[in-house]
Fold:
Amino acid sequence: MATPIDEESRPLLAQTQLVPSYHGLHPASSASPSGVSTPVERPGHQPLNKPTTRELIWIITGLWSAVFLSALDSTIVATLLTSIGSHFNRANQSSYLGSSYLLSVCCFTPLYGRLSDIMGRKHAMLMALVLFTTGTLLCGLAPSMNALIAARAVAGMGGGGVLIVSSITETDLIPLRERGVYQGLGNVLFGLGAGLGGPLGGFLNDHIGWRWAFLIQVPLLVASMILVSIFVNVHLPTQNQTAREKLARIDYLGSITLVIGVGSLLLAVTLKTAEGFSWENPWVWGLFALSAIFLPGFVYVEGWVVKEPIMPLRLLQHRTSFTVAVTNFLNSVTGHSMLYNVPIYFTAVKLVSAGNAGLHLLPNAFALASGSVFAGIWIRWTGKFFGFTLFSAALCVLSSVLVASWSPSSHPLHFWIDIVFSGFGRSAFTTTTLIALIASVDREDVAVATGISYLFRTAGQVIGVAGSGAMLQTLLTRNLKQRITGPGADEIIRTIRHSTTIIPELEPSIRQAAVESYALALRAVFYAQAGTAALMLMVSLIIEKNPLPVSHQEQEENERYRRAKRTQQESSTELVPSYQGLNPASSVSPSGVSTPVERPGHQPLNKPTTRELIWIFTALWSAVFLGALDSTIVATLLTSIGSHFNRANQSSYLGSSYLLSACCFTPLYGRLSDIMGRKHAMLMALVLFTTGTLLCGLAPSMDALIAARAIAGMGGGGVMIVSSITTTDLIPLKKRGVYKGLGNVLFGLGAGLGGPLGGFINDHIGWRWAFVVQVPFLAGSMILVSIFVNVHLPTQNQTAREKLARIDYFGSTTLVVGVGSLLLAITLKTAEGFSWENPWVWGLFALSAIFVPGFVYVEGWIAKEPIMPLRLLKQRTPFAVAVTNFLNSVTAFSMLYNIPIYFTAVKLASAENAGLHLLPNAFALASGSVCAGIWMRWTGRFFSFTLFSATLCVLSSVLIASWSPSSHPLHFWIDIVFSGFGVASYHTTTLIALIASIGREDAAVATGISYLFRTTGQVIGVAGSGAMLQNLLTRNLKQRITGPGADEIIHAIRHSTTTIPGLEPSVRQAAVESYALALRAVFYAQAATAALTLMVSLIIEENPLPGSHEEQEEHERQRRAKRTQQESST
Structure:
C-alpha cells in the first residue's frame, strides 16, 4: 500500500489522471475487488465517452436545436432585405446584412476548435449561443442600418461556432463508423431550418414587422441554451485548472491575426467583386495589403510563438488533414457558385420569375439532405469511405458539365435533374471527408482539425460566390459590348448587368443580345465550376484509407494503438527517420524485424519505390511546368498591360524584374534546402511564386505589378533548383541525366504553351486572369509537394528556431545586393540606353563593387554555413562547371535574342515567321538533354559527350555567322538546331559532372552555385550582345545614311525593325546591310565564347557514375574514407 511519503516522492510526470465521472455520461470503468466501479486510468489522452441511448437523445436534442435555429436565421434575413432597406432608407446597404454575417462566421468559426478543448464542449457551445443570441436580439432592437449590420456580425461570431461545436461533440460521443449517419441526420435538420427560414421571415414581416423575425428567435435560443447547459456533458482530460488558468491558455495572438488576416482578405474580395470597387480604391488594395501582413503573421505565430495554437501547422503537414481542408474549400467553391448562378440562368436566359427559378432549386435541397444521410448509411454498412468520396466528387463534376451544356434545345427534365447530382455529391462529399479527417488524427486533435476544415469550407463559400460573380460580370460585360452598340448602349448594358428582371421588357433585338450574352458567360462559369470539381476529384485521390471503429471499445483500442505507434516513433533518435513516401534503407535484426540503419554524420540514402517516385516527380514537375509557363505567358501580355496602365514604356520591366529577382535569389535555395529540408524549401519557393503571381493579377498600378513580378521571381528560380536538387537525392547518378532530360522536356512544353495561352486568356477574359488562373494550379502543386516530397536528410534534432538561426543572412544579403545591383546596372546601361554619367548606372556599379567583394569575405571568413562555400570553387571540376555554365548561357541567350532580329531586320520577315525559325531549336533543346541522359545511362560516362556538346555550340555559331543572301534556305532552319541540342545536353552533362565530383552533402549548395552562374550568364548574354549590336549598328548606319533627317531615320531603325520594309529602297538597303554586318560580328563573338567554353571544358574530371542506390552508397563511403585519411595525414 502506498504511503503518503511514497505518493509525495513520485515524479510529477509519472502521476496519472483519472477520467472524472460527469453527469450524463459514464466513462469506461473497472471493478475493484469490492465490486465498486472505479474510473479507469488513461494518462495523457482523451477519455472515452459512452452515453446511454436516453442520454444521447437529450444531448442530440440540445445540439440540434441550436443547429436548427442557426440554419433558420441564416435564411430568414433573405426575405427581409427589401423591408429593412426601406425602413432605414438605406436599400443600397441591404446586401451587407448577409455578407457581414457570412464574413464573421468564416473568421471566428476556426477559433472554436481549440476553445472547445480548453473550455470544454458545453462552455464553448454556450459561448457561441450567447454571442448568437445577443447578436440576434440586437438585430431586433437596432436603431440604424449600421447598428443592424454590426449586430449581424456579432450573431455570425456565434452562429459558426454552434455548427462546429455540435460537430465536434458528436464526434466525441458517436463511434466513427456510425458518425456519418448522425452527420446526415443533422444536415437534414439544418436543411429543414434553412428551408423554413425564408417563408417564416416573410410571414412575420407581413403580419407583425421585420423586427419580430429576429426577436421571436430569442426565447427559442434561450431554451436551446438551457438544454445544452443541462445535457451536454462531455469528458475531456482533467487538468485541475481554474477559469483564469484556462483563459490564459487561449491563443489570443493567433486568434487576432487570423481574424484580421482572413477578414480583410475576404472583405477585399467581396468589395472588389460584389460591390464593383476598382483596384485603385484604397479600401481594396488596403485590405489586401492588410491580409498580406497578418496572414503570414498568423502562420509565424502558430508555428513558432504560441504553445497551444488554434491551428497547429503540424496538422496541415498530415496528408489527409491537408487534403480534406483543400477539397472542402474546392467543394464549397463549386457548390456556392452553383447555387448563386443557376437562379441567374433561369431569370436571365430562360426569362422566368424569381419564384420559378427558386423552385428549380428544390430538388437540389432534397439532394443536399439525402446525400449526407446516404453517405452515412454507406459508411456504417461497409466501414469504408474512400470509394464513396470519389463517387461524390465525380457527381459534382458530372453535374457541372451537364449544367454547362444547357441550351434552348435541352429537354425540360434537364433543368430539374442536372443540379441534383451536385447537391447529392456535395453533401455526401462533406460527410465522407469529415469522417476521413477524424479517422486520420488523434482524438485530442479532432476539435482543432474540425475547426481547420470549417475554416476552409466557409472561405470556399465566400470565394465561390465572389469569384464566380467576378468572372460572370467580366464575361457578360465583354459579350454585351460586342452585341449592343450605338447611342445609350452603356446605360442599357449597365441596367442589364445589374438587374435581370429588366430583360423581358427590352426590345426584341436587345433582349436576344442580353440572353445570348448571359448564356455564354454562364456557360464559361459552369465549365470553370467543372474544372474546380475535377481538381477536387484529383486531390481526393490522396486521402488515406483508415479503419473506422464500429464500437466505443474498438475506437479506444484503435486510439491506444495509434498512441503506442507514435510513442515508438518519438523514442527512436539518431536514426534515419521513416518519412511518409520514402523508405530508408534498413537492416534486419536477429529476430527478423526490420530496423532503421544508423548513419551518423552524412546524407542518408533515399530509396523510393516506383509508385512513390511517380508521385514525387508529379509534384516536382508540376511546379516546374507552371514556372516555365509563367516565364513566357507574360510575353504576349506586355502590350495589353502597358495600354491598361498607360505605361507602355515600362512593359519590358515585367520580364527583367522577374529575371533579375530569379538570378539573385536562386543560389540561396541550395543551402536553404539543406537547412529547412527539400519539402519546406520547395514550399517556400512555391509560396513566394504563388503570392507574386496572385499580386500580379490584383496589381492596381504598373509599379505594383513590376514589384509583384520580382516577388514571383524570388520563388520561380527556387522551384527550378530545388526540383533539381531533390532529383539528385532520389536518382542514382548514372540515371540522373535521363530525369534531367525529361524534366527539361516538360519545362519546354510549359514555355511553349505559355505564349499562346497568355494570348488566348488576354483576348477572351482579360490579362489579369492570365495570372489569377495560375493560382489554383500552383495551390494544387503545393498540395502534391506537401504530401509526397519527403526526402531524408541528416537527423539534427533541431527546432524551427534553431534551423532559422543557421541561415547565412549576412551572405544572402550581400549576394542579393551585390549581384542585383550589378545586373541592374548592366541592364540599364545596355537595354535602356542610360549613359555612363547617369547616377543610377555608376551608383549601382559602385554598390556592386562594394557588396560583391563583401560577399566573398563573408563566405570565406565569417559565415559558419555559407550559401556559397569558397572551398568548392577551389576544386577543379566545380570551378570549371561554374565558368562553362556561365559561358554557355551567354552563348545560348545571345543566340535566342539575336536570331529573331536577323530574320526581321535582314530577311525582312514578319515577327511570326521569325518565331517559327526558333521551333527546331525548341525541339533540339528538349531532345538534347534526353539524349545526353540516355548516353550517360548507357555508357556511365559524360566527358566525351560534354566536349561533343560544346563543339556543336561552336559549329552552330560559326554556321550562323556565315549566313548571307546566297545561303541555302535549309541553313536558316537547321544551323540553330546544333546550338539548341548542344546547350541542353551540355547543361545536363556538366550538372552530372559537378555532382559526381563532390560529396553528397555538398550537392545542394553546388547546384545553387551552378544556377547562379547560369542565370547570370543569361542576363549578360542578352545585355552584352545587345550592347555590342547597338554600338556596331549605330556606326554602320552613320556610315551609310547621311543628309537631312538622318539622325531621326537612324533612331527609328535602331529602335524598331518593323520600320525597315517601309523605307525608301536605298535607305532600306543601307539598314539591311548595317544589321547584317553588326549581327555577323555578334555571332562570331558568340562562336569565340563557345570556343572558350570548349577549352575550359577540358579541365573537367571524369568520375565514375554509380548505377544503383547501393553502388552510390558504397562510392560515397569510399569518398568519405579517402577524405578522412587525407585530413589525418600531416
The longest helix spans residues 446-483. Strands lie at 29-31, 37-39, 586-588, 594-596. The first strand starts at residue 29 and ends at 31. The two ends are 67 Å apart (CA to CA).
